[in-house]
Structure prediction request, 129 residues.
Amino acid sequence: MKILIDTHCWLWWIASPEKLSAESIRILKNPLNTILFSAASSWEIAIKYALGRLPLSESPDQFIPKRLVRDGITPLSIEHTHVLHTAHLPHHHRDPFDRLIISQSIIENTPVLTSDEAFAQYDVEIIKT
Prediction:
């Protein structure tokens, strides 16, 4: 099964796994699942780090790739179809990074692992944390 992980859930997986449900941890640890990590999440993390709103043990250009490789998580690039699809989304969610992740979920036909209640307002399959 392919699953797209939301930014905050990936950060919880790294730093505070106790915030994730037992089911979420089981999904993330299952080697039969392909966990996708959006370039939108990398972008969001880089911006928050640069603004001093997200402390990390090293800069995002080191932090993110090391952990993706370590945990066997697959990067998901941002494609034009993902970005352009955001124009068709209702404005239930204002966060541009989340809107892009929602669009990727729709285009890639992949559920999203998230705790963000606003995702449920879209036509995406949600795996609650």
About this structure: Residues 2-128 form a domain with the Rossmann fold fold (CATH 3.40.50.1010).
